[in-house]
Amino acid sequence: MKYLVKLMMLLITIIFPPFALAFESHSSQLTAIDNPLAILALLIFFGSYLLVIFEEKIHLPKSKPMIFSAGLLWIIAAIVGRQLGVSHEAMEAAVTHNLEEFAELFLFLLVAMIYINALEERNVFEALKGYLINRGFNYQQLFWVTSGIAFVLSPIADNLTTALIMGAVVMAVGRGNPKFIGQTCVVIVIAANAGGAFSPFGDITTLMVWQSGHASFFDFFQLFIPAVINYLIPAAIISRYLPKGQPPMLTERTEVKTGGYLVCGLFLVTICLAVTFENLLGLPPYLGMMFGLSLLFLTIYFKKRTLKQDDEDVKFNVFSKLAKPEWDTLLFFFGVMYCVGALGFFGYLTSISQIMYGDWGATTANIAAGAISAIIDNIPVMFAILTMHPDMDHFQWLLITFTAGVGGSLLSVGSAAGVALMGTAKGHYTFMTHLKWTWAIALGYLGGIVAHFLLNG
């Protein structure tokens, strides 16, 4: 049995090194990695994550296996805890420890999603798409314009939303040219992930580091130049293989609905409130986001009172378009956090932590963790690292923020942006389309790391 446990721990280190991180010390943490039930919990976790990886093939939303596994893992943890004499109070403390982490992330993301949906309902993104399509750009220009906008937009709108918006533009103008669509979608994923790496609003992992207090809001802008390099190197390489010519212009044009620009302004105000609450008032950023959400609610309320009953905008509801995939994402985060918390409760993460941040060192561990995030989601990567609280300086915290944020670009399944585009651009942007350019993306990944060492080391 002990050899089996050692083998499983070795597999975690090789395949899932981010999970080989220590769990924050609690009196309720066990040393039970050789317990048969603990090994069963580990196998359940591996199985559920395989289902997540093959989500597009089996059409099972990623939240379902992770929530199911989270429940099973904590049932097993309670049984093992009772066998080893853990009190009810200690068990409750171990479970609720993860709740605070999830609640802050949930409220922050919920506000951002509501604003994004309000902007979509007001046709802000559709108007942007129509404007770009009818500018008469050739394929080369459209390639740089769409990917450049993706890089600039993702720090505000998040990498997933940005990739879907710009992917829709590429699909519209590149109709009939699958080569252009595939290559441009690859770079849009790279640009969206790179742009999100230097802003707490652009990527969940950056947001988690910010909320944990390891870096202030403006500290992340030190990653701007590394992020630019991470985007430009593969983009410059791929652009040399684009098809020639110019796509046909479209006659359709969408106008921004009344109040669309006001919602844009309120969103920017809300972002400023989150930063102000954290930097000046010492309050958590999610509280500033919730306060900004109230401004949107009040604005809509007073706006509706000035409209006639037969006006279409009277029926506008900011909750009506809170899409199913977004709730799937939020619940997936819940499952991941509680699964990682259960593994930490058993003592798995503590037992292997020395391999990552002890034997390998922080730099090697952080670069490896970023590369592995191309295979598994970067959310559990970052959550495991934050749970550990490794002894790292400011430079290393920025390094893991960067590598976890952009490492997912190495494969199409490594980020939410890539997975989403594979679904919306089926037949044009695929796993193999992206894999063809992984070598160029890896050059950008290493180039960004080198830039971080030169500029911020």
From TrEMBL:
The protein, known as: Na(+)/H(+) antiporter NhaD
Biological classification of the source: Bacteria, Pseudomonadati, Pseudomonadota, Gammaproteobacteria, Vibrionales
Stored InterPro entries: Cit_transptr-like_dom, NhaD-like
Keywords carried by this UniProt record: Antiport, Ion transport, Membrane, Signal, Sodium, Sodium transport, Transmembrane, Transmembrane helix, Transport
Protein's membrane topology: Multi-pass membrane protein
Native source species: Vibrio hippocampi
Signal peptide range: 1-22
The keyword Transport appears for this protein: yes
Residue ranges crossing the lipid bilayer per the database entry: 37-54, 66-82, 102-119, 180-200, 220-238, 259-277, 283-302, 330-355, 367-386, 398-425, 437-455
Family, as annotated: Belongs to the NhaD Na(+)/H(+) (TC 2.A.62) antiporter family.
Compartments, as annotated in UniProt: Membrane
Domain Citrate transporter-like: start-end pairs: 49-405
Pfam family, one: CitMHS
